[in-house]
Amino acid sequence: MFNNLTKKITNIFDKISYKSYLEKKTIKKTLNKIKLAFLDADVALNVIKLFLKKIKKKIKKKKINKNLSPSQNLINIILKELIKILGKNHYSFNFLFNQLNICTVIGQQGVGKTTSTAKLAYLLTKKYKKKVLVVSTDIYRPAAIVQLKRLIEKTKANFFPSVVTQKIMTIIKSAIKEAKRKKYDVLLIDTAGRLHNNSKKIQELKKIQEYTQPNETLLIIDSMIGQDSINLINKFNKEFNLSGIILTKLDSDTRGGVALSIRTLTKKPIKYIGTGEKIYDLQIFHPERIAKRILGMGDVISLIEDIQDKIKKKELNLLNETTKKGKIYNLNDFLIQIKQIKKIGGINSLINKLPINIISSNSLFNDIDEKSFIKIEAMINSMTKKEREFPTIIKASRKKRISLGSGNTIQEINIYLKKFENIKRIMKKIKTNKKNKIFESIKNYLIK
């Protein structure tokens, strides 16, 4: 998420970090570089102009924090303005109490609408402990109904069956009746994908809105379409009273600048962001956390939430026993860690939430990717119980057998065992109650 923009921004700040005084010329040059970085990330020009105008105004007021260096003061000003542009507050689902909450999910075809509906169902049941019923009104695509049903089976929500031969209003009336009868908290209605200029389907959706009177109408926007999404939001909002946006595919190589433009240009909040293909890859949009990620400060809070939500206490205790009781950290523990990282979205998800300076200063993150983790897991699974517990006994003959069993070359096995030794050293520091430099650095780096 925002990888290219984050790299550019952190490079800009690195060049001024050592300065004890920032001249007007340096500030102007820095802001111009930020402007170019934002333009390259597909942020709307008028949003950039407004953003820079506010920063310049703050700099002139000279509200300086004496505990921070000149560069840190500038970063602090930029951070605060970035949060404002992203929306300042975070907006979650608008729950009505003691009555059925109805949410219609709308958008164009191919933007991930059906998948987002299922992800939202998962989030509402998992995080908010709500009783959720989901129905599809996409009678134009039989596969859409089947797809949604299969996705909902992965959640704790329930699916209300519908078929393409039914009329849309019949499906909706039946679903509402069922939701009220069985006292569901939320009814999610996945509507058919439609273009904003298709008058027939727009009228059809208007009938749905008029009848259901939803307290949430969420528009799905594909972040990869860039600034065209602004026009889309405005056109859909003209026809329907949108309560918020779900921005999908922020895990892709998209430039992602549209996220910085939406709130300013449409006045509509981004409520959720899609960050992957898994059913749990939908997050509440937190402007402050996103702003810090853009500026290379990481998002440790979201990382902690991922660990709490996706890893069971029993699994965490397996490693706690190793660190607290003084046991030797071995390849079994390493395998547990790999599986836990996979559960929170993989190594890329982990790295993207850590501050840039932590990643760049720690060799553990160099040349490690999802493929490496798959190969490491295969390597460990090809070992004997004794080899996992005592990796030092793995010599040439054993490496050859492990190589044949795991599909790794002997050179790769040497590399992965070396990385294991690096992690083992860190675990030893934790075990002997020394400060964990990585997390200490995170604490010191974040600007409050």
From TrEMBL:
Q: Which Pfam families match?
A: SRP54, SRP54_N, SRP_SPB
Q: Which GO terms describe its molecular function?
A: 7S RNA binding; GTP binding; GTPase activity
One GO BP on record is: SRP-dependent cotranslational protein targeting to membrane
Recorded GO CC terms: signal recognition particle
Q: Which InterPro entries match?
A: AAA+_ATPase (IPR003593), P-loop_NTPase (IPR027417), Signal_recog_part_SRP54_M_sf (IPR036891), Signal_recog_particl_SRP54_hlx (IPR013822), Signal_recog_particle_SRP54_M (IPR004125), SRP/SRP_N (IPR036225), SRP54 (IPR022941), SRP54_GTPase_dom (IPR000897)
Q: Which residues form the signal peptide?
A: none
**UniProt-annotated location(s):** Cytoplasm
Phosphoprotein is among the record's keywords: no
Catalytic activity of the protein: GTP + H2O = GDP + phosphate + H(+)
Q: Does the keyword tRNA-binding apply?
A: no
E.C. number: 3.6.5.4
Ranges for the SRP54-type proteins GTP-binding domain?
A: 269-282
Please state the protein's primary subcellular location.
cytoplasm
Q: What's the family?
A: Belongs to the GTP-binding SRP family. SRP54 subfamily.
Protein name per the record: signal-recognition-particle GTPase
Organism source for this protein?
Buchnera aphidicola subsp. Cinara cedri (strain Cc)
Which gene produces this protein?
A: ffh
